[in-house]
Amino acid sequence: VIHGTDCRMDECPFLRMAESKKPESMLLPIGESWFEITSDPLFDNMGKFQGAVHILTDITERKLAEEELKKSRNELREYFDNDISASYVASVEGEIFSCNKTFLNLFSFGKKAITESFNIARLYKNSGDREKLILIVREKGNIENYEVDFIARDGKIINSIINAIGIFNEAGELEKIRGYIVDITDRKKAEAELLKSETKLRAIFTAMTDVIIILDSEGRYLEIAPTNPSLLYKPSVELEGKTVYEIFPKEQAEFFLAHIKECLATGQLIKMEYTLEIGNKTIWFSANLSPVNSNFVLLVARDVTERKIAEEAIKESEQKFQTLALVSPVGIFQTDAAGSAIYVNPKWSEISGLSSPQAMGGGWLNVVHPDDKEKLAIGWEEASKNKSEFFAEYRFIRLDGSIRWVFEQTVPEKNTKGEVVGYVGTITDITERKLAEENLKLFRALIDESNDAIEVLDPETGRYLDVNERGCLDLGYSREEFLALTIFDVEIFIDEAGYKKNVGELYTSNKKILEGVHIRKDGTKFPVEVNLRIVRYDKDYLVSVVRDISERKSIEDELLKLSRAVEQSPVSIFITDTNGIIEYANPKLLEVTGYSLNEILHKNPRVFGSLEKSVTDYKLLWETILSGKEWRGEFLNKKKSGELYWEYASISPIINEKGSVIHFLAVKEDITLRKKMIAELVVAKEQAEESDKLKSEFLAQISHEIRSPINIMLGNVDLLKDIFSEYLDSDANRCFDSISVASKRITRTIDLILNMSEVQTSSYKPDFMQIDLDKEVFGKLIHEHQLFARQKGLVITYKCEIAEPKIVGDEYSVTQIFANLLDNAIKYTEAGSVDIRLTHNKKGNVVAEIKDTGVGMSEEFLANIFKPFVQEEQGYSRSYDGNGLGLALVKSYCDINIATIEVKSKKNEGTIFSVTFNG
After folding, report:
1. DSSP symbols for 73-111
2. Fewest beta carbons less than 10 Å away: which of 45, 108, 431, 700?
3. Residue 369: which residues within 8 A CB-CB, separation 6 or more?
């Protein structure tokens, strides 16, 4: 008993308990012993604390037992918390009394404790599963390996197995359930995957067409996969457990067993191919043997019959291709996608001149013509870009230097993805075709450049099928208009009957030359010479070569006039060859000599001789005329009757365009009477001296005129006219005028033709020098043409705007340019003036301008103005003479002198020609 005064309240915990007036107890360790102290407070009647009664009990053994129990409980708790299964204790109603950490983690509670309000029933995915568990535990006391799906707090499905033990009260009623939950979610997934894999494998085996067999080292069938029974040599039940020798013929069995042993010996995969007769069919197999272990092999065999058939077909196709390629008449080649050659056939090599090795890769490009490489590359690039076919024509330059034209056709080879993997093509030798095309172009160019119209007609209908440019120009039609015509629209003097007659005769003679008259689009007519021929190609064609003979007809008319003048001439005229043999004599000669034409043709003029001339005289005569000069003199000749007579003769050579003497022309005048008169004058010299003097002067003047540099015919005609002027009447004068005009015209025509011939044959040799156009050209030309202009009542004006109008040119051709232009200006101008102007253009070049107020030209004609033999007016009805060579010659002379000529003209208003010297 401890007195209350001996205890301080703040020091004795029991006194504190006295405050509550309730007994208190406490544990008190003393040394290694434990004591339990029970304190009962003592109070007086006043309720004042008086002390306490303490009972001290030694509880050391109990305390030690409790410590052991606590330790055991902690170990049990640690085990409970660390158990891999989720352990819990819950009431039948679902209240959770305890659970371990695994439980908390499994159901996503984290570190938070489960509240009393949380019911385990909320974790079950299907409430019926818990009800079934309680029912079984109530009946059996426990449940094992019960599969249940739970739902964690985060919504995750947990597949699990639960083992549970029931806790019953004294009445045998189930109060609690102790459960152990094992998470089998991963196992379930694995089982599902395994099931899925097995299902898939089963489906694969079912769908497989390969034969899969396991055999041992003796070739015994151990297992046969149920893949494709139709490919087994026998039903599987007849194969399993048997060796290859029991199944197959010996040779086949040895084949299989040898490969099996090789596979086991090497431990390597062995590939093989073989055939089996299955169901009356030969089946090709491609098989792989792989070792399973040291005693077993796995055979996987696949039906490759279709592939083998395809390979055989491909092989056969390739053999056919090789055969075709070897004998093909065209070159065949194959390239990769980049265009590098990987194959060429013999014909390709024959065409290109390259061997197959030389052509490989880019070697074939080495013989492609340099001018064709760029075009070929562009074409290849375009075809490659579009994955399209390619066509081209190009040239090979073979190693021997020869050139071959080829036509290439190429198609792309594509794989299953549509990608171009190469090209296959052919080349065809088109050299002959190209040469034919070139020849055809050349022939067409020659036709189009021809000065004659060339036409192709249908022999049956007379319709035009083709025509060259000259044909269109001659008639004034466009090509389209011309080809809509027939011969009856063009030829005046032809009808259907006449046409058929001519065509019929052509089939016999094959050639016919006719003359006709054609009518132009504008209605004008012109004479033509037509050369007809039948040409056979794919059918019969009538080819007509038409020549405008307007100029020829005009010349023929002129020649006719001249020949008439010669025939009717009052003087004797004859022509000989270069040996002096007479080829022609006019009637006057026959009249004077008394010979007939037959008596003097092919005879020498010595037949008229009287031996009055000496050998020296004749030698001088021949030297003169053979040198190209004219000889004039007198002969005392003898007529057929023997009568002597005097002749005054002019003998001159006739020279062709080459400058060669081809004939001699003799014009002889009977001067017997004149000689007689001269003799009489000599006798009466003293009485007629003055008269004789005048006569001599007259003869001298005549002689001078005869020796002037003009055409021999004009000179002789003028001479005759002068001699007999006092005896001639008006008709005779007109006759001589006609001869003079015609002679001048023919002389000018011949000069123009000769000059044009020189230019066209390039035989004209210009002599370039510095020329003063003012003094050396126009000064002379204006003086020469003043008389002609005054006779027509025209005025020639001349203006030089240049201080020194000098050029470098050929004096003769430059003079001829302006002589012709001035002649034309005066000839085609009836009233007004001809104006000449020398000036500079903007470039400082000398320009000569000739302007007239004449008839002018139409705009349509200006395009043809410089073409030979072209005149705006054609035929006999034209107003002016001329042959159409003047302006053509002017253009040629301008070209020689590096000059350009331009013309402006308007009908009935006049013409301006401008010549610009560019040199």
Report:
1. HHHHHHHHHH-SSEEEEEETT-BEEEE-HHHHHHTT-TT
2. 45
3. 394, 395, 396, 397, 403
CATH 3.30.1300.10 fits 553-748, yes or no: no
CATH fold of 765-917:
Heat Shock Protein 90 (3.30.565)
What are the beta bridge partners of residue 215?
Answer: 221, 297
Query: Residue 469 pLDDT more than 70?
Result: yes
Per CATH, the homologous superfamily of domain 218-308 is: PAS domain (3.30.450.20)
User: 830: alpha, beta or left, given left = phi > 0 and alpha = psi -120 to 50?
Assistant: alpha
| C-alpha distances out from residue 599 to 41, 383, 481, 568, 607, Å | 209, 88, 60, 20, 10
Rounded CA separation 656/692 (Å): 42
Q: What is the mean pLDDT of residues 227-240?
A: 84
Sheet hosting strand 33-43, strand order edge to edge: 2-3, 49-58, 33-43, 24-30
| pLDDT, the chain, mean | 83
Give pLDDT tens digits for 810-861. Answer: 999 999 999 999 999 998 899 999 999 999 999 889 999 999 999 998 888 8
Percent of the chain predicted with pLDDT > 70: 82
Helix, strand, or coil (residue 158): strand
Count CB atoms within 10 A of the CB of residue 660.
11
| Integer Cα distance of 329 and 347 in angstroms | 7
pLDDT of res. 324: 65
The pLDDT tens digits of the residues spanning 680-732 come to: 877 876 664 554 444 434 433 443 344 445 556 666 777 777 787 777 777 77
For residues 51 and 49, what is the distance between their CA atoms, to the nearest angstrom? 6
d(CA 578, CA 581): 7
Gap between the Cα atoms of 631 and 620, Å rounded: 9
